[in-house]
Specification:
eight-stranded antiparallel beta sheet; 25 strands; 33% strand; seven-stranded antiparallel beta sheet
Length: 416
């Protein structure tokens, strides 16, 4: 019986050796797997630089490229895209609205012609029938469309003596009215900017809405309105229930839907000093104060790349199911590490010419262009690019370029 322990000891030693060998093999396999995963991840997160071919010179600081490589799609298919490369030291990028109004519709070629633009693309999302913007929209430092939805947006910052600079983040915007009534400091949320009034809601109308607050049938319903103007901002005259209140050139109109005012608004009367404050909210790290100082802001749907990293979760943006995985005509704006601005239109909905792109394909394109930031703007039938007065893409609507609510134009930079 004493020999059994010695055999058991030998088996144990042999088992330990086998165990060490197995663990070593496992570690080696794991190491190989990790290296392979890293290589695969690197391949998926970046792509070789695109060969753009010969550029068409549009003007100083603007180059146009056209691509039709079917391998830009997965699986490959017909492609037609147009790419504008803008040098921000020579070119300015601006947000413009249809007919210089908020709720209006106009084609991108007509917008470009009115502003003598060198190039232009469509921009933000809107209600197709009316042109009412549905996302954040700021023009020349004035918020003309707020949005509670937190979605990808681009901000345009212009400073004297500096190239135009773009901001990217997921952004929402709200507006509040503040004033002192007696010993109380009141803060009242404004429910909408430059959009038809609703019963029980407080709206704000800027001069871009039109000559008065009654340019839409919904706004003509009974309500109470105040004209605000001057510096500091104050109530110019007693409240009115007449409707169609003239909007001051240097002010705004507050409009409440209904005649029974909430207590918070009862103190608003002639000469009352007020503050109308816009508040931006960001979720991907940028400073809201920088957005507050932006000249223009355009809301999109689908922040694709931020600080060189592709995003893969758009839950926060509350996009329609399938919007990211379906192929559609797309309009894209992005910037490279050096600040170069890229505007891209991708044609689609034409099986013989172009199929459009998914978000994944857009990200692959952005990587090939070397974009550090990229945002999906309005697409579909809205996708339009104009260069030197001519449409250079293939709008998908059978009737031609769709009338849209707003656009982005490239104009020569003015030295300031």
């Amino acid at each position: 019986m004493r020999g059994i322990p010695s055999h058991a000891s030998a088996d144990t030693d042999r088992g330990r050796e086998l165990g060490r060998a197995a663990r070593g093999l496992a570690r080696a396999i794991l190491g190989i797997a990790l290296v392979a995963a890293a290589i695969l991840a690197a391949a998926c997160s970046s792509s070789a630089p695109l060969h753009l071919g010969k550029a068409e010179r549009v003007a100083a600081g603007i180059r146009l490229y056209r691509l039709n490589d079917p391998n830009l799609l997965d699986p490959p298919g017909p492609v037609a895209m147009q790419i504008l490369r803008l040098d921000p030291s020579k070119v300015d990028l601006q947000s413009v609205t249809a007919l210089e109004r908020v709720i209006a519709l106009e084609t991108v070629p007509d917008m470009a012609a009115r502003h003598d633009a060198l190039a232009a693309v469509n921009a933000g999302f809107f209600v197709v029938k009316t042109g009412d913007p549905t996302g954040v929209l700021q023009v020349a430092g004035e918020l003309i469309s707020d949005s509670a939805l937190t979605r990808g947006a681009v901000g345009i910052v212009r400073r004297p003596g500096q190239p135009v600079r773009l901001l990217f983040d997921r952004v929402s915007a709200s507006v509040v009215l503040r004033y002192r009534h007696g010993d109380e400091e009141l803060e009242i949320p404004i429910d909408g900017v430059d959009t038809p009034r609703e019963t029980g809601k407080l709206m704000l109308y800027t001069p871009r809405y039109g000559p008065d607050s009654g340019t839409d049938a919904e706004t003509d319903k009974a309500g109470v309105e105040w004209r605000l103007g001057g510096s500091p901002l104050r109530v110019l005259e007693p409240p009115s229930t007449a409707g169609k209140t003239a909007i001051p050139r240097d002010g705004v109109v507050l409009s409440f839907g209904g005649l029974a005012l909430p207590a918070s608004l009862e103190g608003l009367d002639r000469d009352q000093l007020v503050v109308v404050e816009t508040r931006f909210h960001t979720t991907r790290g940028s400073d809201p104060a920088h957005w507050a100082r932006a000249d223009d802001i355009v809301g999109g749907a689908g922040l694709l790349v931020l600080h060189g990293r592709a995003l893969d979760d758009w839950t926060e943006e509350r996009l329609r199911s399938g919007f990211d995985t379906e192929r559609h005509p797309r309009t894209l704006i992005g910037t490279s590490k050096k600040g170069t601005i890229w505007l891209v239109t991708i044609d689609g909905r034409n099986p013989e010419l172009a199929l459009g792109m998914t978000f994944a394909e857009l990200q692959h394109l952005a990587s090939g262009l070397g974009l550090e930031n990229a945002l999906n703007l309005d697409g579909g039938g809205s996708t339009t690019m104009v260069v030197e007065g001519k449409i250079v893409n293939h709008p998908s609507d059978a009737t031609g370029p769709r009338k849209v609510s707003d656009g982005l134009i490239a104009v020569p930079r003015r030295r300031r």
